[in-house]
Amino acid sequence: MGIVETHDLTKTYGDKSAVKNLNLSIAEGEVFGFLGPNGAGKTTTIRMLLGLIKPTSGSAQIFGLDCEKETAQIHKRLAYVPGESNLWGSLTGEQTLKLLSSLHGEVDKKFQNTLIEKFQVDPSKKVRAYSKGNRQKLLLVAGLSFQTDVLLLDEPTSGLDPLMQEVFRSVVLEAKERGQTIFLSSHTLSEVEVLCDQVGLLRSGELIEVGTLDQMRHLSALTYQITFEGAIPDLSKIENVRRVVVEGQRVTCELVGKPTGLLAFLNGLAVEKLICHEASLEEIFLSHYGN
Amino acid sequence: MSRSIIGRDFSLSLRELKTMSTARVITVHTFKERRKIAAMLGNMVGIVTLSSLYGYRSAYPHLADRLRLSASFSHDAGIAAVFGPARSLETVAGFTAFRTLGVIPLIIGIWAALSSTKAFRGNEDTGQWEILVAAPITRTKATMATLRGVFASLTVTLFIASLWSILTSKLSHNFSVPAGLFFALALVSSGYLFASIGALASQVANSRRVASMMTGGAIGVSFLIRALADTSSKFSWIHWFSPLGWINQSAPLTHSKWLGLGAVAIATLLISLLAIRLSAKRDLNGSLISERTSRRNGLNVTSIPKLWLKLQLGNILGWALGFTFISFAFGLVAHGATKAFSGSSTIQKTFANLGISKQSELFFGIIFLMLSAGLMFAANSQAAALREQESEGYIDHLLVSPASRWWVYLSRIATSATGLVIIACGAGIGAFMGSSVQNGVLSFSDALLAGLNMVPSALVLLGVSTFIFGFFPRATTLVGQSLLVWSFLLELIGSTLKLNHWILDTSFLHHMSFAPAVAPRGGQNLLLLGISVLLISLGGYGFNARDTQVG
């Protein structure tokens, strides 16, 4: 049984479904990437896991406890970092951290200070004087310093510069090494690719694919880049070949299934270079959501 | 320009957006956001005017009564300081002007100032202004368009107040239609001026909070100068340093002098031009004064109740000081007002029917009834603040902690209830101090009890508002404000129109005793407290059972 589980989790608003029959199981110590375009239902799912909104049907459990009824017990062992959130402007960063820490009980002050240094947050400033990125860094320091069993991160790097995104990755990997389970909703695919053991793809509230990156790659197309010396042949008619793009002497295409047909076609043609690589997460994402 | 540029509650349809220029969109949106309250204020002006007029006729039916009233009020410096100069009180028109001119311009001025700082600095604080000025419009034109929207809403107030004035003139024949129109203009003119001051403060301050404080300070100073000018003829020249003094100098319904209103118009124009000029010159999100952005030694916020205290302390202390000051001012004038009551045979009869023997304390009873409406407003603003914590997503940080929703909710309500008690005590202490200066008869315990007597009604409104928050969160502020206005209007016009007691019972204020003139009704107050606890509990149940609603 997973540490985070959902069973036919559904949330509807009027006749519109935000999340439909979502079934997830995340093992202890796993980093789970939750992907989907805007409005796919990622935040709604997270808010149901947090008990902020109630499911229309189905259920969700964390640590085997019901997310709707046993929220306080769950929250003792869980931390949440939203991607966009208001913080009380009249409080300083230090007061905010102290408040959020005291609500969660014991916090390793030394570890929190290390995070403050890593993320380069000035806690003496009032929150209203912070930029969006600095507010986000403060939320990350708070959420990560609790060292709870489960971390729910909803687009946590929005507003962060590339340097801080790198800091975030290293801190999450450290959390993973400590055995924390991390539920990461993100639009930064390179981040998910580096951090996540398992990925779930959500579209219009429905989970369309879930698995490890390798499993997804296995199901997905391989990308071929072929550079010809002479005339460019038409590859689009070849069996299992799709998305043919010609750029000068170079042809890029995807191949699903066996390459027998393509290799037979290329045999005898003047091929200067042939590169084949597995699909990146971005390519998998675009193949599901792109036009 | 899309609907999302100005906010979730953008008031224009996409069709309207497509056909309008950017400047017009800003003006119409600013106007539409304010028109309902503006209309409500216009009606309030009309109803207060009408009720003052008929109330005076009913309370002082004979010339002898009116002359006694005029004699006792005309030479009372305290009364003049609070309400303004008492001119021609022996006439219906004179009394109506006296009753309204001291209070209504202040109310309209405060609303217009807050409305203006919200339209300017409030939108800048939330980033909406940034999106507006990124549209094809200059900063100057955007500021002008916003100002036009605010002024247009005030024109709705003026229009409705004018209609009531015409109606009152035709019904009563106590003043001419032109005099009535001048009267309406005088009452509403403070709105235009303080709205322009709000616009200017929004350019100078670095947040809406600071802009509102600056504008509030300007209103306060204006009131104090006007009050000082009215206490003695020696100081009367300083009227010309106060916008509220200019309005008083215009003497509507009695002399109708244009000089005062001319000063208001010129000041409004100059201040508006300065605000427009500054808006074009300064950086976006910049200001002429800077706020302290760091503090090392603040309140140690380590729990949810301490957080609520930190967030509400300034607000509660502000209300408490305001109530203390107002009741102190009324304490100063209590002696003169009591003499005026004794001049009316009708009021004497009414007192006898109510079983009121301590006439010297009845004035305070009426004042505490008025203050009670203010306390109810504070109660509703507490519920609105709770809703804001939810709608803006602040409360999520608390709800994802191990604290239960009940704890988050009840600790917030307990802070509000404690704040209301502190404000009420402030009113009692202020009244006692004011009365003591005038060698009054109000004892400390009676004054404090009279203050605390206001609390149960305010708690019932807090209960209703939190009940609505629990089940229909988006309607929290609207329902609370509507009930408050309903109660206030019923108290103002109920006795004049001799309404059925079933209708009067729907007013929260109607269940208050006239403490300290009559002893607070312990049983009734306990019942009100019980009702408020029940409503607060039901609201908590609703909040616990429902989804959080952001936006």
Question: How many strands, what sense, and barrel or not for the largest sheet of chain B?
Answer: none
Strand segment count of chain B: 0
- The level of helicity of chain A is 25-40%
Cα Rg of chain A: 23 Å
Mean pLDDT of chain A: 88
Q: Helical segment tally of chain B? A: 22
Q: Ranges of chain A with pLDDT <50 over ≥5 residues?
A: none
Share of helix of chain B, binned: over 70%
Q: Helix count of chain A, per DSSP? A: 10
The CATH architecture of the largest domain in chain A would be 3-Layer(aba) Sandwich
Element order of chain B: H for helix, E for strand: HHHHHHHHHHHHHHHHHHHHHH
- For the record, the count of structural domains of chain A works out to 2
Specify the overall morphology of chain A: elongated
Mean pLDDT over the full residue set of chain B: 84
Shape of chain B: globular
Report on this structure.
The complex is a heterodimer of chains A (291) and B (551). Chain A has 291 residues and is α/β, with parallel strands linked by helices. Chain A has helices at residues 42-49, 71-76, 93-104, 109-119, 132-145, 162-177, 189-195, 213-219, 260-266, 281-289, and strands spanning 4-13, 16-26, 31-35, 57-62, 65-66, 78-81, 150-154, 181-185, 198-203, 206-212, 222-228, 241-247, 250-255, 271-277. Chain A has a six-stranded mixed sheet, sandwiched between helices. In chain A, strand 7, helix 6 and strand 8 form a beta-alpha-beta unit. In chain A, helix 3 runs parallel beside helix 5 (132-145) and helix 4 packs antiparallel against helix 5. The longest helix of chain A is centred in the middle third of the chain and has 16 residues, at 162-177. Chain B is mostly helical and 551 residues long. Chain B has two domains: 1-61 and 91-289, no CATH class; 301-324 and 359-551. Chain B is built from 22 helices and no strands. In chain B, helix 2 packs parallel to helix 20 (476-497), helix 13 runs antiparallel to helix 15 and helix 13 packs parallel to helix 17 (405-437). Chain B starts with 13 loop residues before the first helix and ends in a 6-residue tail after the last helix. Classes of the chains: A alpha/beta (291), B mainly alpha (551). Chain A binds chain B through residues 47, 50-54, 71-73, 75-76, 78-80, 82, 85-88, 90-92, 94-95, 98-100, 102-105, 122, 124-126, 128-129, and chain B through 207, 292-296, 298-304, 306-307, 310-311, 392-394, 396-405, 545-548.
